[in-house]
Amino acid sequence: MKTNHKMTRTSRTLTFTISAFIIALRLFPLESNAQMVESGIDVLQKSNFDILSGKKIGVITNPTGVNQKLVSSIDLLHEAPNVEVKALYSPEHGIRGDHAAGAKVGTYTDKKTGLTVYSLYGKNKKPNSKMLKGLDALVYDIQDIGVRSYTYISTMGLAMEACLENDIEFIVLDRPNPIGGLKVEGGLVEPDYISFVSQFPIPYVYGLTCGELANYLNEEGMLKNGKKCKLTVVEMNGWKRDMVFAETGLPWVPTSPHIPNSNTAIYYAISGILGELYTISIGVGYTQPFELFAAEWIDADKLAYNLNGLSLVGVIFRPVHYKPYYSVGKDKMIHGVQLHFTDVKKANLSLVQFYVLQELHKLYPNKNVFEMCNKSRLNMFDKVCGDKKIRDQFSENFLVKDIEDLWNKPAIDFKEKSKKYYLY
User: Fold this and answer.
1) DSSP E strands: which ranges in 276-407?
2) For residues 297 and 368, is the Cβ–Cβ distance under 8 A?
3) From CA 237, how far away is CA 3, in angstroms rounded?
4) How far apart are CA 147 and CA 270, in angstroms?
5) pLDDT at position 16 over 90
6) Could you state, in order of their start, the residue ranges of all structural domains in the chain?
7) How many CA atoms lie less than 13 Å away from 214 in the CB half-sphere?
8) How many CA atoms within 13 Å lie on the side-chain side of 264?
9) Whole-number Cα distances in Å, 370 to 80, 127, 154, 398
10) How many C-beta atoms surround the C-beta of residue 337 within 10 A?
């Protein structure tokens, strides 16, 4: 019988395409359940802003503070007839997203509303009594990414302390954790390493929404002097702990220039610590921030082979070659790997970067990334890790197994301890 090779090839192509599509849906589901989840601002809006009625409020937010229809929370609250917005407070990147990462900003006026904007990423990272004068409540509405070193939760915690000190209510409009509420990874922050990139002793990937985290900080005595502020959390509707952001049906607004989509928030956890050294490109400065690991001296094929040989759960690597537009490796052809998820929910995100360092050391024992970087970057690496012990212990043999207990055990304990603060 004669075989129709053309039909066979077509069938194989179709089968492969369908299989690839099914895998893609499993890894990062399409936002098909439109408006399935209602964030805190949506719930508040449906209630006609009842809990704010008659109150003089300040609002801490940025471009991520929007409702399901992408209307700014600033504008919704400013236009609500029963709410009096007195001032705005801006985290890193600005109230409307018009300031670069790390840029220090002073007090200015929001052109659209005419309201005074106080920067919380400049001279004052914590609102003072003058900035809060006359307020009944301070409202927080910012989309976070679920990783401790991202500074928005530091802003939230310090603002809670300011409300405590000035007898003002703190109100969190809750939003999804884009990594989900089940994944908890990394050690806690030691007292000597508390900083704006590690403000509180929580794991690197902490598995809570911002509202749940606010409750945890408040009830566990983590605010100044162990005292509690008057806290209200406006809960979401429809969010479940096992959801990554793509499953919420909500629109994603970039939380910062290098987090353009919700998947990037997950990638941030795999490379953000290593990125602090500025010795290896992690894709920042190219089109795939936080997805890549590369340098001029790396053999891409060998690194991909070594990493895939580890059979890490939920991830796979492919060789890549690219020329960054800025940052590490700018205008140079560099070589390395791109990480792809095969099952994002099962992957251990934060240890990936240490496995990359482990395999690089095997291939290039004379290339010590800790010795290649500026000494000030070592300090930032330690702050983001939460203490110096991780680097000290890892750099002895460059083996992940040497730090697994240091990294994993505190996370297991925290997850159990934090369960009583789950709202969903």
Assistant:
1) 292-295, 315-322, 334-341
2) no
3) 56
4) 10
5) no
6) 40-247, 262-387
7) 32
8) 20
9) 53, 37, 27, 11
10) 26
Distance of CA 247 to the CA centre of its chain: 17
Residue scoring higher pLDDT (233 or 25): 233
Backbone φ, ψ for residue 324 (5° rounding): -60, 145
Spatial contact of 115 and 107, defined as CB atoms under 8 Å apart:
no
Q: For helices 210-219 and 152-165, what crossing angle results, to 10°?
A: 50
Rg, Å, the chain Cα set: 23
**H runs (alpha helix) in 276-372:** 300-309, 352-363, 369-372
- Provide the H-helix boundaries in 96-144: 129-132
Statement: residue 67 has pLDDT above 60: yes
Among the residue ranges 87-96, 139-148, 296-305, the one predicted with the least confidence is 87-96
- The proportion of the chain whose per-residue pLDDT surpasses 70, expressed as a percent, equals 90
CB 72 within 8 A of CB 93: no
Q: Which helix (H) or strand (E) holds 109?
A: strand 108-109
Alpha helices, H only, 276-327: 300-309
Q: Please say whether the beta carbons of 66 and 96 come within 8 A.
A: no
Model pLDDT, residue 22 = 43
**Greatest Cα-to-Cα distance within the chain, rounded to the nearest angstrom:** 88
CATH of domain 262-387: 3.90.1150.140
List 38's β-bridge partners, or say none.
Answer: 237
Q: Where does 278-325 show beta strands of DSSP type E?
A: 292-295, 315-322
**Residue appearing with tokens 């750099």:** 395
Q: What is the pLDDT of residue 97?
A: 75
66 vs 59: CA distance, rounded Å: 13
pLDDT of residue 106: 80
Answer for the pair 198, 189: CB distance below 8 angstroms, yes or no. Answer: yes
311 burial class (0-12, 13-18, 19+ CB within 10 angstroms)? exposed
Class level of CATH domain 40-247 = alpha beta
CA distance 154 to 291: 25
Look at residue 101 in the predicted model and tell me its pLDDT. 61
